[in-house]
Amino acid sequence: MRVAIAGAGAVGRSIAGELLENGHEVLLIDKAPTAISVERVPQAEWLLADACEITSLDEAALQRCNVVIAATGDDKVNLVVSLLAKTEYGVPRVVARVNNPKNEWLFNESWGVDVAVSTPRLMSALVEEAVSVGDLVRLLRFSHGDANLVELTLPEESALAGTQVGDVEWPQDTSLVTIIRGTRVLTPSREDSLEAGDELLFVAAQAREEQLEDLLSVRREDAS
């Protein structure tokens, strides 16, 4: 898979290193000469250019990329790169970094963004995920379909503890994708039973999140 990363700072280089280790082809683009540190990621291709310019993206052959990652420290740049990648070059997957959570609402399909990653929001979500039981925590937002990756740790008092996955009437537009049980990561089947303390990961439409939380969490009448 060929991946172009706009922004060769610490974030961009870190992403590049991970992708290269997984066998992908990576191109790093940055307009600042001081950011071109070939020795730090020698396996990557490097391009000194402005990723907001069509001529630069032509030189990068963006049309050959499977994924573009807009990883600069400037939200305006990330939006422009995302829009150009999607509309001018038809890149199948565009991932954009959100630096200021106040700008998160802009990072959607209208700007060519398939997945928006907000570092401050993600860190906050991970803190919530570590300490919250029975509360739905949003980990990641997908632009297409207005869906989110959400997590809930099943409380002991939940009415669903001990219930088989296939027997649960899940809300529409939700999918249980993973059960984390201790150190195990389980791909759920209909026969698997939900246990108290399970970390449940769902892809769910935003409109269904409250319904999903109500289904999984402690019912007030049960907790009294």
UniProtKB/TrEMBL annotation:
GO terms for molecular function: potassium ion transmembrane transporter activity. The keyword Membrane does not apply. One of its GO terms (cellular component) is plasma membrane. InterPro entries: K_uptake_TrkA, NAD(P)-bd_dom_sf, RCK_C, RCK_C_sf, RCK_N, Trk_Ktr_HKT_K-transport. It holds the Pfam family TrkA_C. The keyword Ion transport applies. Residues 137-218 form the RCK C-terminal domain. Keywords: Ion transport, NAD, Potassium, Potassium transport, Transport. This is Trk system potassium uptake protein TrkA.
